[in-house]
Amino acid sequence: MNEEDARSWLAEGSGLLKGRRYDEALAAFNWAVTLEADNVSAWTLKAAALEGLHRYEEALECCERALALDASAAPVYSQKAFVLSRLHRDQEALEVARRAIVLDPRDADGFSASGSALLALRRSQEALEAYEYALKLDPSHIRSSAGKSGALTSLRRYEEALWAAQHAIALDPFYATSHNNKAAALRNLRRPEEALAAYQRAIQLDPRHAIAHSNLSLVLIGLNCYVEALAACDRAIALDPDLPSAYNNRAVALVFLKRNDEALAAIERSIQLNPGHRAPYINKAVLLFRLGLYGEAFAAFKLFWRFRRAR
Question: What pTM was computed for the model?
């Protein structure tokens, strides 16, 4: 009876998860694992619900519980890779995603998780290829549709990125990342008002979407709304204290507000979190030059140029 009841809760939770009703889905999966503690799918789907609620450490624990039950379950590795990417453990996420692909080469989630990790590691062409392969396996795979837009933006193929984001939104109008990626394409196409609306829609759909808050600040800076941009960065950091772009964007807003010491501290934090990202180095160089620290400015510029040439 418990097994039958657990399967019933599992089915109900799955439907709620598809509808992005994460709190209710989590409650259903909690019942499922209570009634059938060795159900691998229940633990994996509970992890997905927790990911949707931005409770990443708990989601990771659920993945580990599932892997302890079945170390050869490809969907668990895919879900674990998604969560690791959320935690900015990108190289680890890539390794876990590749394990999922080895176990099940026909599972779109594995390739999509690989794409997410590759994109975070700034291996944008490989990320695009991973997303496109996932979409060959499952043309309606929403994470891959949205991710493809992000990869195309990273490759500066902005018109294609916009089309990909619009396609993702047509598949699922309520997936916040699709709207975030649409906004990124629009911003790079110099359509700031439309980008602003798209970021606001992403945040409306998922108020805890730290990247959308951080990216919103870039549009606000472009519109000379520096106080509002700083507030957007602060919201992003409150949601995700380890998000490098939020500190870099915060520094830019602080420079315009003539709060240079705070700006320099924000840049240093961005570099500390992601030493391989080139943008903070040029911002640091410009700021140090303005402060008359020419030697340090030149050193920062050399690092920026090294990363630019590597790219």
Answer: 0.90
